[in-house]
């Protein structure tokens, strides 16, 4: 809603009047390359506009969103866009929020893992099932040999042992299934983590609830961001960003980039955990 309300206010008041919380039009001559302008908004969708009124609401963007400058960018030539290099700023912003989301996903996954005691019980049951399977196979082979030699009584006795062992194996398999269904903090809810947005999902959810999640604003926001990030990274792969002045806080590897240095040329942006 915040993005829609802002657009409506810009239409009613004029974008330059809205900039700076309604101050006089001191930003009327704002340049498209000004550091105060949100470059993510110019190129695509500002992350701050994706998650309004969701659990991941980022609040208002600290930079300026000007529809006039966005139109200027959209109508600019390919050469001008390449000179500005705003796509790299957009990718850097998206990578920040994608990395944050991936860390939440990894943390949520760890919370659903089994406890050491549950792991020990699982391993013990798996070993028992394996040993019982070997005993059954050996018994069946013995029955076959005894039958061929005419030792009917011994074969029947061995058959009884095999049936008893099969019952023991079935009991262990039921215990293992019950442990797998109820172990971990997820317990009876059978929770799993959405690998796109990090929300918890229940395997027991019906189609309607799953649809509400997958078409919800938060999931769609992260899904769109990941797709856009992947598309841009492929388009810019092997293309170095334009040089910027070292004093520019938005220069490659500057303060806004978290001090990690250039990550653009040669496809330097990375894919995290298969979560496009």
From TrEMBL:
Annotated Basic and acidic residues bias: 234-248
Gene Ontology annotations for the cellular component aspect, listed alphabetically: U1 snRNP
GO MF entry, a single one: mRNA binding
GO terms of biological process kind: mRNA splice site recognition
Region (Disordered): 234-276
Composition skew (Gly residues), residue ranges: 254-268
Pfam families cross-referenced by the UniProt entry: LUC7
PANTHER family linked: RNA-BINDING PROTEIN LUC7-RELATED
Family: Belongs to the Luc7 family.
Descriptive protein name: Splicing factor
Protein species of origin: Monascus purpureus
């Amino acid at each position: 809603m915040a993005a829609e309300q802002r657009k409506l206010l810009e239409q009613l008041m004029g974008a330059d009047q809205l900039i700076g919380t309604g101050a006089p039009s001191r930003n009327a001559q704002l340049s498209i390359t000004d550091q105060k302008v949100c470059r993510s908004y110019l190129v695509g969708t500002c992350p701050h506009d994706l998650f309004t009124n969701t659990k991941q609401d980022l609040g208002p963007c600290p930079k300026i969103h000007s529809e006039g400058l966005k139109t200027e960018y959209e109508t600019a030539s390919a050469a001008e866009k390449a000179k500005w290099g705003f796509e790299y700023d957009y990718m850097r912003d998206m990578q920040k929020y994608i990395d944050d989301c991936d860390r939440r996903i990894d943390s949520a996954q760890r919370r659903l893992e089994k406890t050491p005691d549950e792991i020990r019980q699982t391993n013990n049951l798996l070993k028992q099932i394996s040993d019982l399977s070997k005993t059954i196979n050996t018994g069946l082979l013995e029955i076959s040999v005894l039958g061929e030699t005419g030792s009917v009584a011994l074969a029947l006795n061995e058959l009884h042992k095999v049936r008893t062992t099969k019952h023991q194996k079935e009991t262990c398999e039921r215990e293992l299934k019950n442990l797998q269904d109820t172990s971990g903090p997820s317990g009876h809810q059978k929770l799993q983590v959405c690998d796109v947005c990090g929300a918890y999902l229940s395997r027991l959810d019906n189609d309607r609830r799953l649809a509400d999640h997958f078409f919800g604003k938060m999931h769609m926001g992260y899904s769109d961001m990941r797709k856009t990030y992947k598309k841009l990274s492929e388009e810019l792969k092997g293309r170095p960003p334009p040089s910027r002045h070292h004093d520019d806080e938005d220069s490659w590897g500057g303060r806004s980039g978290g001090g990690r240095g250039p990550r653009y040329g040669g496809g330097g942006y990375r894919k995290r955990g298969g979560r496009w």
